């Protein structure tokens, strides 16, 4: 449409309304997972979140009215199989499972901690993905959450690079294998989530200030920033096998 000397282009909705769609958010009791569940609930999706902590799930249900919760261990394949069989067909799957181990200077890195890092993120993500595949509608999507440590080359992140890099490298191949079902990854940078709670409050605040001063956007990320990116990928039926960085320019 012409408007004076300008051309106005009407951008159509990507024909993906989430209303009444069934969406599973694995690891949805806090942080990015909970923010994603909240955005989907606002769009009237039928949202079910999972997590290990019944207490955290109860808090999440209070924070986001209308969502459903199920406590399960994503390292337990029997629990996962039973859960997805009970849910039946689903439209979208978001896997926001994460561990807290694996960071540290390589020469001092405990391989026990690194194995626990894989057990906390890599294996439960793959376990969840395999268990869910038979139930995700072919016109739907799967989105996994990795981390910018996969490519950042920052000192002290070699273990995290192994965990997140392994996940990211699998995404394009899986996308070809499961077509036309789509799978993508979102790779956040520094985001204010409970992942950082291993630091004392003052140390965490200092780290956030330092990162913010270095980032081109001038601030650290918030869970909603990442959740917006996840919903974009869920909506856009022409994107698959892709890793999208949502890092405030940290990887530049």
Automatic annotation (TrEMBL):
Domain of life: Bacteria
Pfam families: adh_short_C2 (PF13561)
Entry annotated with the keyword Oxidoreductase: yes
MF terms (GO), sorted A to Z: oxidoreductase activity
Keywords: Oxidoreductase
Family (UniProt): Belongs to the short-chain dehydrogenases/reductases (SDR) family.
Protein name: NAD(P)-dependent dehydrogenase (Short-subunit alcohol dehydrogenase family)
Species name: Chitinophaga niastensis
